[in-house]
From TrEMBL:
Keywords linked to the UniProt accession: Coiled coil, Cytoplasm, Metal-binding, Zinc, Zinc-finger
Region (Disordered) residue spans: 247-292
Subcellular location: Cytoplasm
Ranges where the B box-type domain occurs: 91-132
Transmembrane feature ranges: none
Biased composition range(s): Basic and acidic residues: 263-279
Gene from which this protein is expressed: LOC100752691
GO molecular function annotations of the record: zinc ion binding
Keyword Cytoplasm appears in the UniProt entry: yes
Listed name of the protein: Tripartite motif-containing protein 12A isoform X8
Regions of compositional bias (Polar residues) in chain numbering: 251-262, 281-292
Tree of life domain: Eukaryota
Organism of this sequence: Cricetulus griseus (Chinese hamster)
Limits of the RING-type domain: 15-58
Amino acid sequence: MASSVLEIIKEEVTCPICLDLMVEPVSTDCGHSFCRACITLNYESIKGKEEEGICPVCGVTYLFGHLRPNRHVANIVESLLGFKSNPEEEQKVNVCVQHGEKLQLFCEKDMVAICWLCERSKDHRGHQTALIEEVAHKYKEKLQAAMEMQMANKKKCDEWECDLQKERTFWETQIQSDVENVQMEFKRLRGFLDSKEKNEVQKLMQEKEDVMNSLAESQNEVMKQREAVRDLISDVEHQLDCSTMEMLQESDLNTDTAQNGPKKTEKELSSFRPERHAESVSCSRDPASNLQ
């Protein structure tokens, strides 16, 4: 009884293509499961449009990109591999379910293992067949070639990844160096500008002090002149208020004085505005031009 159950379980997890326990089992859209390598080779040999394949068991089309791992079958296979069975039970797995004959042939059109009676049946009559051992050998050669190609591709990917990492490191170092150089240059420029600003402000403050002192002196001079003019006006008014005789008697003394104006004329008063140095004027208009 246990042997019969075990046989049924093995049949369920046996790949319909290679007739061995499934390795890395995957399921198609129709629900049938196969070894990933076997269904991949089957798909490559008969694939249609838009990544469509044909299920070797039921003939229903499926999308190769929709293959999904069958973890349940993988767990069963893993359990079976850990269970020791006798050679007779193992041989029963390779027997045709329909005819009870040993599965020795492989139908290349339907991509399934068959017995010699299946080959003569209407389902497989006229189909190209070959011994399972020969087909398995070819499959193994294809798998080996595919493995070698993928290993070569993996090596290329590893080399590309290494080159990209080197390029990444180079650019990170280069750009970081450029950033540090830019920061250093701007730090130097800020120091230069701060020093230049300080010098220019000191010059302007000194110029302001000189101008204010000059204007203060000029203001004092103007005030003195104003007082002198005020005194002359008072004298003239006094003479105008005197009698004729008094006015004439004092005319020799005051007429010349009354006709004299302030010591500085209006034109001369304009000279009270101090002249600034050309460098200071230029700096006030365009400070950036003095940074050269």
